[in-house]
Amino acid sequence: MDSERRAEQQLDRLMERYPVLAPARGQIWDAYLLMERCYRNGGKILFFGNGGSCADAEHIVGELMKGFCKKRPITEDLFRKITALDPEKGERLARNLQMGLPAISLASETALCTAYANDQDPEMIYAQQVLSYGKPGDVAFGISTSGNSTNVLHAFTVARACGLSSIALTGRDGGESAKRADVAIIVPEQETYKIQELHLPVYHALCLMLEDAFFEA
């Protein structure tokens, strides 16, 4: 079965479990295609948000950078190279490593974030990181329940200027993020905690879809 069909099946399962997300189905699919193309072309995805959305950004990176529902063993060639370099402990190292999909949570860089907030405008820290990390073909993935978080919007502006694609994960009416991002996933809720409750199954589904696209069982 090809990867696109497997991705469609994962999306079908999401809709079965969370029928409330039906209005966002096309948006989720478009986000998946953008992320899959980024990884297929050797790019990376930068995740960012504030408060609970920051925690979600961290969560997504954890699912992408190691095995989520699959073991993702390293290639046989890499396994041989590692064991050859360390005959004593190399095999244990190689057996524990897992293949990842390159992802960075921008809020994790505490020293940089606090230095920038102290020296410059704190609302522009994510924009600074997108400028420094981002390359054409990468994806900037911003999470904002309102869609109007200023630091997220600044990051989207810089992303477009630097040739990155962008995805917004939001709620309510999508806010300004829906206008600035290439794809906006707008979950159909109004209150912050309810929006966040729907964000989790959405990004879990995206991670499952991507894992199916790049890794065997």
Give a quick rundown of the structure.
The chain is an alpha/beta fold and 217 residues long.
SS-based class: alpha/beta
- Count helical runs: 10
Low-pLDDT segments, ≥5 res:
none
Q: Compute the average pLDDT.
A: 97
Which sheet architecture does the biggest sheet show? Answer: 5 strands, parallel
CATH structural class of the largest domain: Alpha Beta
Overall domain count: 2
**Can you count the beta strands?**
5
Overall form? globular
* CATH topology name of the largest domain: Rossmann fold
* Rg, nearest Å: 18 Å
What percentage of the residues does DSSP assign to strands (E)?
5-15%
For the largest beta sheet, what order do the strands appear in spatially?
Answer: 2-1-3-4-5
Q: What name goes with the CATH superfamily of the largest domain?
A: Glucose-6-phosphate isomerase like protein, domain 1
CATH architecture of the largest domain: 3-Layer(aba) Sandwich
